[in-house]
Amino acid sequence: MRRFALATSAALLVAFPSPAAAAVVRSGTLEAERAVARTCDERVGASAPGAAASSWTAPAGGFLTARLDGDRSSDWDLAVIDEASGELIGASAAFGSTEQVLGYVTAGQRVTLRGCRRLGAAASVRFSLDLYEKPLPTAPEEQITMVEVPLGGLADLARLEATGLDVTHDAGPFSAKVVLYSGAERRRLTGAGFQAVTVIPDLAAHDRASRRAEARAPGPRVLPSGRTTYREYVDYQNELKGLAEHNPSLVRKVTLPLPSLEGRPIEGVEIATDVNRSDDGRPAYVLMGLHHAREWPSGELAMEFALDAVASHGGDARITAMLDKVRLFVLPVINPDGFVVSRAAGPSPDDDNPNATNALAVSDAMAYKRKNCRPTVPAQAAQPCATRTHSGVDLNRNYGAYWGGSGSSDLPTDQDYRGPAPYSEPESEAVHRFSSGLQDTVFISNHTFTADGKWLRQPGFDDVIQVTPDEAAMKDLGDAMAAATGWTSELGYKTLGDITGATEDWNYFAQGTYGYTPEIRGLNFHANYQDSVIGEYEGEDAQAGRGAREAFIVAGEWAANRADHGVIRGTAPAGRLLRLRKSFTTPTSQEGIVVNDVLDTTMTVPASGQFVWDVNPSTRPLSPSRSEAWTLTCESPPGTVLESRSIVVGRGEEVTPNLTCAFPAGVPPRRRRTRLRLLVRRSRSARTPNRRRHLRVTVVAEGGRVRNVRLRLSRRGRTYARARLRSLAGRRRVRVRRIRRIVPGRYRLAATGRDTAGRLLRAAVTVRYRR
User: Fold this and answer.
1) Burial class (CB in 10 A: 0-12, 13-18, 19+), 643
2) Could you give the CA distance from residue 678 to residue 751 in angstroms, rounded to a whole number?
3) ω before 63 within 30° of 0 (cis)?
4) pTM assigned to the model
5) Tens of pLDDT along 752-768?
C-alpha cells in the first residue's frame, strides 16, 4: 500500500500559500448485483462479481478522501487504486458500508474507486471524492531527536511536563525521555533549566532502520497471525470482520455507540463461548489499544490476542475455560482517525512515491501523531487531519473521573491537552457509553513505551488518594502480569507522575473495575516489530513462551474470579428482562464541574428461571456511602417495571433475590406478546417515491420493544428501498429510502425484528405504486 509522507516543519507551513478547502470533486453510485465475501484490494478486478468501479483524474495534487455513504444493513468495502501501477493507495473495510479512505494524489494521476459488495441486500451505495489541494514540500526538515532528561524528583517531572514538550511515557522521578522536534524546542528545554543527553539523534532514520529490519527474514518466534510488520488500519478491519464471519458462535461484531470525529466507526469483537446468548450474566473483560495513534504496538498485542483466543478455543484448556466464564471484548483501535494519519505516513524503505519525504514533523503530526483529529483553531477545520500540526485532544486525558487535574494541560497545542470538557471527544464518549453498559471486572488499555515495560494500576495521580481500597488485590494481579512479561508492576503516579482523565481511572472510580495501563517495553513508540510486538507477545529470555499472551490470559482468569466481584443469583420468570441500574455524579478536578453518570446493564432470564449475574460491587471505591446500592428491576416489556429491588453487594459477596415479576392486575400475559405492524399511507407515499427518494411508512411495535428492525421494499427478489431502526417501542414514522428507481407495479414491504427474548418477528404489506 502506498504511504504518503509530508514534511510539516513550522517554517515550511508558514511559507505555503493558503490551500483551497476540501471540495467534492466526484460523486455517484456504485452498483453490484451480487455479494461476494472477500477483501477489496488490488487483486479484485473492476469487472469481478460483487465489485463496481469508477475512475477519476486528479486536477491537482493534494489529499484525496474517498467515502461510501452506506449503513450497517449491508456491507460494502472500499479501495482506491492507482490505475497506472495497479497499486493500492488506501482501503477501508468497516462492518457496514460507512467507509473512508485518505491518500495523497498528484496532478494528473488517474485513480480507480472500487466498491466491493461483501454481504447484505443493498445492491448499490453512494460514493463521494473530496480533494484538498496542497503541494508536498521538498525543503529539508529539521532533525528530530529523542533525549533523556535527568530529574531530581516528581516536582521536576511536573515542571518538565509544564513546558508543553513531548514528554514520553518513559518517565519517572529521576529521568524522562523527551522528543524534540526543532531547535526552538531544544532551546525551550535548556531555557527551563534542564539538561539533556541524546538517546536517538535522528528519529526518522531510526524508524527507517526499524522498517528495513522488519522486511528481512523473521526471527524464530511466530505470532498467531504470522505477521512480521505493523498493520494498516484496513488490516485490523479485515481481521475483525473475518473473526466474526468465520466463527459466528464464538465471535460477534461490536461497534461503539459513537463514531470517531471524522466519522469512522470504532469497532471490535466480543469473544465468548456461545457468544450470542442474551440470558447469561458473565462478567466482561475489556482489552483496548491505540488511544494514542503513534503507539502502534498497543493495537498489535490486542489484535494478536483476539486471533489467539479464537484459534485456541477448544484446544487450549485455559483459554477455553476463560471464554466459558467471561465475555472478552477486544477493541484494538480507539483512535482510528489519528492512526490512519500516523500509520499511513510512517517512513518506509519500500515507499516508491517520488514526492514522499519520509519526514517526521512538528509535534503531533504524521507518524508521530498522538492525539485525535480535533482542529486546534477554526481555520484547521477545512484541512485534512494529515496536514495539521499541534492539533487534537489527548483522549487519555479526556475521561470524566478527576478530569482536568495534574498531568493534563489546558493548552490545545500541548501533547497532553485534555480538551475543553470531560468527554468532549466522540472517541472517549463512545468508550464511556460502551463501558457504562457492561459489568467489566478487568479493563486493560495498552500503551507504549517505557524502557523496561510496566503494568500500571490506580491511582494514576495522588491528588485524592495514594492507594486505593483495592490495592492488595490489584497489586497481586499487576504483579502476576508483570511476572509473565518481565516488566515491572507499579502504582501509576509513582512511575509516570500524575495523569488525570485517563481511561481506566473512570472504570475504576465509577465502576469498581480493576484497570491497568501496560506501557509496552521498547525504545520508541513503534520500534522494530520483532522486538516490540513479536518478542513482547511471545516473551523473551526468562519469559519465553509467556509474555503478553500469558499476562492477558491471567487477566481473563482474574476477571472471572468471584472473589474479586459480586454475584447476584436468583429466580424469575423465564424471558423477563433484568436490569441493573445506578446513577451518580463523578467528580472532576475542576471546581463546579461533575459528570452525571448512569450505569445500565441488562440480561434476560434463562428458560430455567434461574439466573446468575456476575457484577461489579454496588458501592464505588470512594463513595461517601458505605452501602451504595444497585437498583435491580424485572421488566416486560423493557421499560415496564414489574418488580424492583435494592441490591447491595461487595467483592466476594453473593446475594439471592427471588423475583415474582408479576404482571399488573387485569393485564394477562398473553396480551403482552410483542408483535410488529406496518401501516402505509398509499394516497401519498405510494405515488411519489422517485421524486422524494423515500416512502413514508408507519411501523408499530405492540406489547414490547423490538430491536434491529429492518424494512425492505422488494419485487421479484430485488430490493428497491430499505431502512433500519436499532430499537422500536410503540409507533414511529419511518422514511424507507429508495436505492433504485421504482416502476409502476406491486411491491412487498416487509419488516423484521427481534423481541427481548430473541424471537424473530415479521410483518408485511403489499404496496402498489402507480404514476
Assistant:
1) middle
2) 8
3) no
4) 0.81
5) 888 877 778 888 888 87
